[in-house]
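Q: How do we represent a protein-ligand complex in a form that can be generated token by token?
A: Start from the inputs.
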Amino acid sequence: MSTTSSLDLQSFYPADLKILDVEETDDEIIIRMHSVSNNCTCHKCGAPLIKHHGSHHRKAQDLPILGKRVTLDMQIFDYNCSSDKCSGRFAATETFDGFLNYNSRMTERLEDFICLLAIETSCEASARIMNAMRVKVSGDTVIRLLVKRYKNQSPTVCGSTVGVDDFAFKKRHTYGTIIVDEKTHTPVAVLEGRDGKTLKEWLRQNQHVTAVTRDRASAYAKAVEEVLPDCMQIADRFHIHQNLMEAVNKVLGREIPATNAIPKDGESIEKETENQELSTSKEDGGKKNRIYCG
Ligand SMILES: [Zn+2]
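Then emit the structure tokens for the protein with zinc ion bound:
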């Protein structure tokens, strides 16, 4: 087995991106590269492009190297797309399939890692871990990456029983609706808003649904009632438990006084006990006394 004392950095990048030089600072490695390709694919219509239109600088983050942020500073080409779909005049920027998307500020392998981390932990935790590894990313960006991945997935066919609930993209600002297949326990759709409008659209395209478990929000109830009137609506276990706890809380609040006096000394306790015995005796009509005397 042969060993070497250095790594060939170029072998970690597409052959069409040639490394010009590498600059290293205390916390960052900047890799300057330029494109040597002579064709690419239009990201809008998929047509093959061969005519250069110009070039521009583009920066993107890559996976960190030994705790240092890696920035790719690239000189890449622009192309003219003359296909009918792009109306014959669309300036397409160069993409590198599987490595860098046309509008991304990160390489795909970095996005893959961030999304994996977010799924295993959470969006905010993922952002914090990546920041510790010198990658600049916020929790909101991680959410956007996950949503983008979700939108690019092929539509998932779900079973006839689904669960519907809301969640926050950004608490107190923007909310969404998630639909989960109750048999496979896998998410099948993430919709914008929680007012029921997007749920109605989704239900119209999934008329085979016969049962929906949901929270207590009237928006979801109305949406299901309107689009699928024969569909069974079921309150899920979490919300039934929540209902029960609220009811118990209300009863306790009504029946138990806000303050209960605690006797200060033994005399008070004795007095209290006497009063209780007297009260019990009156209630049972002096039955206890009669048994004692007899
Ligand atoms: Zn095109």
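The longest helix spans residues 237-255. Residues 161-240 form a domain with the Nucleotidyltransferase; domain 5 fold (CATH 3.30.420.10).
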